[in-house]
Amino acid sequence: QVELVESGGGVVHPGGSVRLSCVVYGNIFSLYAVSWYRQAPGNERELVASGSGIYAQGVKGRFTISRDNASKTVYLQMNNLKPEDTAVYYCNCPGVWGQGTQVTVSS
């Protein structure tokens, strides 16, 4: 059974940076199967960065997905954050969601 645990969210000023972590517990075929999504209030959950490196249009050039096999962790580096990036961020692999971590971008 696979479990995903996110961390790293918080409150950040516009223009700031945050790195989210997603630790994978259990066995999955590859960390490249893990993607990042987000859901803002009133909006549907949307893909932010896929494990294969596809990014949502609004985050291209600002967000980067990476992974560390030794610690079974997938990261989402988020730079030059904007208020519209405020959301709960989730990591996902097929059939499994993490609990989410809140990122709030506010001055």
User: Number of helix segments?
Assistant: 0
Q: Structural class of the helices, strands and pairings?
A: mainly beta
Largest sheet, in brief, is: 6 strands, mixed
Helical content stands at under 10%
Give a summary of the structure in a few sentences.
It is built from no helices and 10 strands.
Report on this structure.
By secondary structure, the protein is mostly beta strands. Helices cover 0% and strands 48% of the residues. Strands 2, 4, 5, 8, 9 and 10 form a six-stranded mixed β-sheet that branches. The radius of gyration is 13 Å and the shape is globular.
Keywords:
107 residues; mainly beta; six-stranded mixed beta sheet; four-stranded antiparallel beta sheet; 48% strand
Topology at a glance:
Elements: E1 3-7, E2 10-12, E3 18-25, E4 35-39, E5 46-49, E6 63-68, E7 73-78, E8 87-93, E9 96-97, E10 101-105
Parallel strand pairs: 2-10
Antiparallel strand pairs: 1-3, 3-7, 4-5, 4-8, 6-7, 8-9, 8-10
